[in-house]
Design goal:
By secondary structure, the chain is α+β, with helices and mostly antiparallel strands. It has helices at residues 3-12, 16-67, 87-90, 98-104, 124-130, 240-243, 379-384; strands spanning 83-85, 210-211, 213-218, 268-272, 280-281, 284-286, 301-303, 330-335, 340-344.
C-alpha cells in the first residue's frame, strides 16, 4: 500500500476524542428525547382516560333517558349480606357489554333473602354464593372492561388483596395503617373478616375486576344503617334519610336530571381513583351497610369530604374515601351533562360541619341532606353537591 493510501485511511478514521464526543452528543439527544417520548405517551394515556369518562357519562345519560333516572350508586342490603351491585354494572348494556350484563343478570333492587340458586334477576351476593359450587360464575365479575380503566394507573386488572406481602388476603392481620408512600401492599379485600360469608369456599380470596372510576356520592361521609323500627331480615329496611347523599350516586339513589338543580354542567357525576388511593371496581359494593368505611360502598363511590389527591391512604379518613388520579396536578371528572374536565388538586376545598354527625330525622337541620346554613364550603365540595343552590363561577375551577 502506498503512502497516499495510508494517509487517506488515517484521515477517515475517528480519534478516541472524536468518538467520545459523538457518544456524548448521542447521550444528550437521548436524554432530551426520552422525556418528550414519555410526555407524549402520558398525553395519549390522559386522552384515553378522558375519553373513557366521557363514554361512561354518556352511558349514564342514556340510562337516564331510558329509565327516567340515573342508576343507583349501590344497593343498600340487609345486615347479614355483604355485597351488592353498583352503578357500573347497570351501565354495561350502554357500553356494548350486553353479554357480561346477561351473564350477571343484576336485579335493580336487593332481593331478600340471598339465594345462590335464584333464577332470573339476582343479587351480587347470589352470584358470589353460587360460585361456591360453580367457579364459572366468577368469570364475568373478573372480566376486565377497558372503559373502566385509566391507562395511566398501574392497578392490575383484578384488584389485589395482599396485606403482608404473601400475595394472599390476611384478614386476621387487618390493621389499616395509614401511609404516605406506595409500599406495594393492598390493605383492602372484597370480603369480610368472617371468611367471606356469601361466597363459599371457592370465593374466599375473590378479587374483583378493577375500575379507576367511582361515582360522586357528594359531601356526606355517613353510613347507611337500619331504619328505626326495622323488623330485621328478611324484612330489613335501610334508613333512606341516612343513606341519602347529596351527590349523584349513593345508597339506593335514583337521581333524576331535574334534581340536579345546580346545573348538570356544574355537578360532578364520576371521578377518578388510582392505585395509591385504592382503585375501585365496577361490579359494586362490599358490606354497604358501613357506608363510611374504606371497605364498603367506597369500592364504587367517593365523597369530597376528603380533598382531591389527599396525600395519605389506607387508614380511615384518607384518600381511599375520595377521588384521586395518577395524572400530575389533579384529576379528571365527568360532569352530569357528559362533559369531562381536568380539576386541579389545588382547587379551593374547605368543609363545614362534620357530616358524619347527621341524624335520621327528616325535620332535623342536621340531617344528612341539610342546607349549608352559615357554614363555609369549598368550590370542590360545591361541585359535588347537586342542589346546594350556590352558583359557581367557571373561573373558580
Amino acid at each position: 500500500m502506498g503512502s497516499r493510501s495510508r494517509l487517506l485511511l488515517r484521515l477517515r478514521a475517528f480519534t478516541l476524542v472524536e468518538l467520545l464526543v459523538v457518544i456524548a452528543i448521542i447521550g444528550i439527544l437521548v436524554a432530551l428525547l426520552l422525556p418528550a417520548v414519555q410526555a407524549a405517551r402520558e398525553a395519549a394515556r390522559r386522552a384515553k382516560c378522558q375519553s373513557n369518562m366521557h363514554n361512561l357519562a354518556l352511558a349514564a345519560l342514556n340510562y337516564e333517558s331510558a329509565k327516567k333516572r340515573l342508576p343507583v350508586g349501590f344497593l343498600a342490603t340487609g345486615p347479614t349480606t355483604i355485597e351488592s351491585w353498583g352503578w357500573g354494572v347497570y351501565l354495561l348494556p350502554y357500553l356494548e357489554e350486553q353479554s357480561v350484563y346477561d351473564q350477571l343478570r343484576p336485579a335493580e333492587t336487593f332481593i331478600q333473602p340471598m339465594d345462590a340458586a335464584r333464577k332470573g334477576q339476582r343479587n351480587l351476593a347470589d352470584v358470589l354464593a353460587a360460585s361456591g359450587t360453580n367457579a364459572q360464575e366468577l368469570v364475568p365479575l373478573q372480566t376486565s372492561i377497558s372503559v373502566f380503566r385509566c391507562p395511566s394507573d398501574s392497578t392490575p386488572e383484578l384488584v389485589p388483596c395482599d396485606q403482608n406481602g404473601s400475595g394472599k388476603c390476611d384478614i386476621a392481620a387487618l390493621a389499616y395503617p395509614g401511609k404516605s408512600t406506595d409500599d406495594g401492599l393492598w390493605w383492602r379485600s372484597f370480603r369480610d373478616g368472617d371468611g367471606y360469608k356469601a361466597g363459599g369456599a371457592n370465593a374466599k380470596d375473590f378479587l374483583p375486576s378493577t375500575s379507576n372510576y367511582v361515582g360522586n356520592k357528594g359531601t356526606i361521609d355517613a353510613g347507611c344503617p337500619t331504619a328505626p323500627g326495622s323488623p330485621g331480615p328478611p324484612n330489613w329496611l335501610p334508613d333512606e334519610v341516612k343513606c341519602a347523599g347529596n351527590g349523584i350516586f349513593f345508597a339506593n339513589s335514583k337521581v333524576t336530571l331535574r334534581q340536579i338543580s345546580d346545573g348538570t354542567g356544574k355537578t360532578f357525576m364520576i371521578g377518578e381513583r388510582d392505585r395509591f388511593c385504592n382503585a375501585g371496581t365496577w361490579i359494586g359494593a362490599r358490606f354497604p351497610l358501613g357506608g363510611d368505611q374504606m371497605h364498603s360502598s367506597l369500592w364504587t363511590v367517593a365523597h369530597t369530604a376528603i380533598e382531591l389527591n389527599f396525600p395519605n391512604t389506607q387508614a380511615y379518613e384518607t384518600c381511599n374515601e375520595g377521588f384521586s388520579s395518577a395524572h400530575k396536578g389533579g384529576g379528571y371528572f365527568a360532569f352530569s351533562d357528559g362533559s369531562v374536565r381536568f380539576i386541579k388538586d389545588d382547587i379551593n376545598s374547605s368543609l363545614g360541619p362534620n357530616n358524619k354527625a347527621c341524624t335520621a330525622s327528616k325535620t332535623d337541620t342536621n340531617r344528612c341532606r341539610s342546607s349549608f346554613g352559615t357554614s363555609i364550603i369549598g368550590v370542590y365540595q360545591r361541585l359535588s353537591w347537586r342542589d346546594d343552590g350556590e352558583q359557581i363561577d367557571d373561573t373558580g375551577y
